[in-house]
TrEMBL record:
Signal peptide stretch: none
Keyword match Signal: yes
SUPFAM superfamilies linked: Periplasmic binding protein-like II
Listed InterPro entries: SBP
Sorted UniProt keywords: Membrane, Signal, Transmembrane, Transmembrane helix, Transport
Example of a GO MF term: maltose binding
GO biological process, one term: maltose transport
Organism: Myxacorys almedinensis A
Protein name stated in the entry: Extracellular solute-binding protein
Listed transmembrane segments: 19-39
Similarity comment text for this entry: Belongs to the bacterial solute-binding protein 1 family.
UniProt keyword Transmembrane helix, yes or no: yes
Gene3D superfamilies on file: Periplasmic binding protein-like II (3.40.190.10)
Length: 436
């Protein structure tokens, strides 16, 4: 005890007499306080928030956990959003309009890009990624990720509309898969009449939402028509090709090939009905294949995919869809956001999400991956269809243009107006939107 007292006394004496000791101890105290303030702040991980369409959440959750384990300084706050792309777009849009979006990353449908980029809501990514890296992606996906020459999105999955059919039912009826719209109607009717267990011939998306605009784009192109020419703003919705395209869809309902309920269907409603086993054909994106072939699926092993049908003398077209990551211009954490994007777009993540979620990769090399090819025999076919896809117009006013088309398609599909009236009104409103 005495020794301690003696020691403290000596220290105090030093402190009083030596200026150097006094200065040094003040510096030490200051440094210690600074450390105590800074350390806890630094050990808090950066949180990156983003919305994710509900069906994709389970596929991404384990991958996010893996990313967080390897990057303890970043936490990914995935917020579950609705399924329909236009609803998720609205959520993102309203938060950007408020000035400072709470989201750091934006998982973007290909059709949002022009609007989000034109509004200044995204950081350009050109400086982050080399030309050589970009060349490893499907060219159409990269093209669709640019606005006025700048890159705003890195794709993690592509998408394209396809025609699904029941191989067993066509074979029993001695039919080949259809090539034209007329073939499809005929084959559907033949199988429906021959087989009591087959209630429906064709299911598709007809609800008032983005998926119906996407589906219509490919029927329209299959008839040789167009929606909006993005170069000239010319509108093709009231031309005979467009009216023929809508009449084809209406005839499927009028002839009892499609249920009147398609007017309320999104992708999943069509998929569930087709999967229950009583339908011959379905229009859908490739994600459905994985679900259709799961162990408990009644149609497992009896489904094939082909390019969409077309009119005689025209070629078939699948609508280009797909999703990619952008960085919100308002984020405080662009470096961490870029790190997350590199992970989400990596070959590793794309392969996993393809294997578990059935999504189409956007990296070219994965179309030669033996595990993926074993599971998805249609990959080479998809690559072919992606050579000449049907594009929804890449214009900044896309959301409004699509909203107009969705409203009038829905009015015709649910029998409230004729195809001519619907498309003439849609064309008129679209022209006034584009100032044409
Ligand atoms: C898919 C496509 C997307 C499209 C949407 C419509 O998610 O990838 O591009 O807009 O379906 O429902």
């Amino acid at each position: 005890m005495e020794i301690v007292q003696d020691y403290s006394f000596k220290l105090l004496k030093y402190w009083r007499t030596s200026l150097l000791v006094r200065v040094l101890s003040l510096i030490a105290a200051f440094a210690l306080t600074a450390l105590l303030i800074v350390l806890p702040a630094r050990s808090q991980p950066v949180v990156l928030s983003f919305l994710m369409n509900a069906p994709e959440v389970p596929t991404l959750r384990p991958l996010i956990a893996e990313f967080e384990r390897n990057n303890p300084n970043i936490r990914l706050n995935m917020i579950e959003a609705p399924n329909a792309t236009n609803l998720v777009e609205d959520l993102n849009t309203s938060s950007f309009l408020l000035g400072s979006s709470p989201y750091d990353l934006v998982n973007m449908d290909v059709v949002w890009l022009a609007k989000f980029a034109a509004a200044g809501w995204l950081r350009p990514l050109d400086d982050q990624v080399s030309q050589a890296e970009l060349a490893t992606f499907l060219p159409g996906d990269i093209e669709a990720s640019r606005y006025q020459g700048k890159l705003y999105r890195l794709p993690w999955r592509t998408d394209v509309g396809m025609l699904y059919y029941r191989t067993d039912l066509l074979q029993q009826a001695g039919l080949q898969p259809p090539e034209t719209f007329a073939n499809l109607l005929q084959a559907a009717k033949t199988v429906q009449q021959a087989n009591d267990a087959v209630q429906w011939g064709y299911v598709w998306q007809g609800r008032q939402y983005e998926g119906t605009a996407a589906m219509f784009t490919e029927v329209l192109q299959g008839y040789g028509g167009f929606w909006v020419n993005p170069e000239t703003n010319e509108v093709g919705l009231d031309r005979p090709e467009a009216i023929n395209a809508l009449n084809f869809l209406l005839s499927t309902i009028q002839q009892g090939i499609s249920p009147a309920g398609v007017s309320t269907y999104q992708e999943e409603e069509a998929r569930r009905l087709f999967q229950s086993g009583n339908t011959v054909f379905m229009r859908n994106w490739p994600y459905a294949w994985e679900l259709l072939n799961q162990a408990e699926s009644p149609v497992r092993g009896n489904v094939s995919i082909k390019p969409m049908v077309h009119a005689p003398n025209q070629t078939s077209a699948g609508c280009l869809g797909g999703w990619g990551w952008g960085i919100a211009s308002t984020t405080q954490h662009p470096e961490e956001a870029w790190k997350a994007i590199q992970f989400f777009t990596s070959a590793y993540v794309q392969k996993q999400t393809s294997l578990t979620g059935g999504y189409l990769p956007s990296l070219r090399s994965l179309y030669n991956d033996p595990d993926l090819l074993k599971k998805y025999e249609y990959f080479p076919l998809v690559l072919e269809v992606l050579q000449t896809p049907a594009l929804r117009p890449q214009i900044a006013q896309y959301a409004q243009a699509s909203d107009i088309l969705q409203r009038y398609l829905s009015a015709a599909i649910s029998g409230r107006t004729s195809s001519e009236e619907a498309l003439q009104a849609a064309a008129r409103e679209t022209r006034s939107l584009l100032g044409a």
